[in-house]
Specification:
Blueprint (H helix, E strand, L loop, with lengths): L1 H9 L4 H34 L3 H16 L2 H13 L6 H26 L3 H9 L4 H31 L11 H12 L3 H34 L1
Helix pairs in contact: 2-3, 2-5, 2-7, 2-8, 3-5, 4-5, 5-7, 6-7, 7-9, 8-9
């Protein structure tokens, strides 16, 4: 078994492909969650606004992006929209994942904001604060803590979903494992290696975020 692993991963320094793919996987996930956070915050505010046009646009965005499979969105972004422009595949993948994440973050943030008791808004307005000041100083801080578990789960899901970036030939970790499989005709070692790394990433981040949430809850009680 060790000899097989050595011949497949170590010989020819093929493990470097896995490390490169891991870096791209993490890069896509981080950039996508940042884009998704900005878009999610913007469209969440549009959803809770009194403007019907903004409501319609926000609902259209979330309905379309959440209703179409991510792999299909990725290929539409690349082959239909950006390929004629000669845009870099990695940049297209980041944009595609970012827009998709934004749709989910929109619903996460909207639910968090609307989950705060309406009396909080009334209390802020009774103190002379404007609606925006009440949102910024009272509602948003409480909503942020409420949505943190779901928001961190979205980031973990993003890491796993980067595996379909190979559909447009982005060299993520899954693509790297597939390249090693094609070169060595050994499927189980590179793919199992990728699976183990994904598992370590997701379990590690879950425990890290869980510890962070417990610490926040403890500081609130304190």
């Amino acid at each position: 078994m060790f000899q097989s692993f050595y011949d497949t991963m170590i010989a020819g320094q093929r493990y470097l492909l896995i490390l490169e793919g891991l870096g791209i996987t993490v890069l896509i996930a981080i950039c996508a969650i940042l884009i998704g956070t900005v878009l999610g915050g913007t469209f969440a505010l549009m959803k809770i606004s009194d403007n019907k046009v903004l409501n319609f646009l926000a609902n259209l965005y979330t309905t379309v992006l959440r209703g179409i499979p991510l792999a299909t969105q990725l290929m539409i972004f690349y082959f239909v929209i950006f390929a004629p422009l000669g845009m870099n595949r990695l940049f297209v993948a980041i944009l595609s994942y970012g827009f998709n994440s934004g749709a989910y973050c929109t619903e996460i943030f909207r639910a968090g904001i609307q989950g705060i008791d309406a009396g909080q808004m009334e209390a802020g307005r009774s103190l002379g604060l404007t609606k925006w000041q009440t949102l910024r100083k009272i509602i948003f801080p409480q909503a942020a803590k409420a949505v943190l578990p779901t928001y961190t789960s979205e980031f973990i899901v993003l890491i796993k979903e980067t595996s379909v970036a190979s559909f447009i030939a982005v060299m993520d970790m899954t693509k790297a494992g597939d390249m090693i499989r094609n070169a060595t005709y050994n499927a189980w070692i590179p793919l199992l290696t990728c699976a183990i790394i994904y598992l370590i990433l997701t379990v590690g981040l879950t425990k890290l975020f869980g510890a962070f949430e417990k610490r926040m809850a403890k500081s609130d009680r304190g």
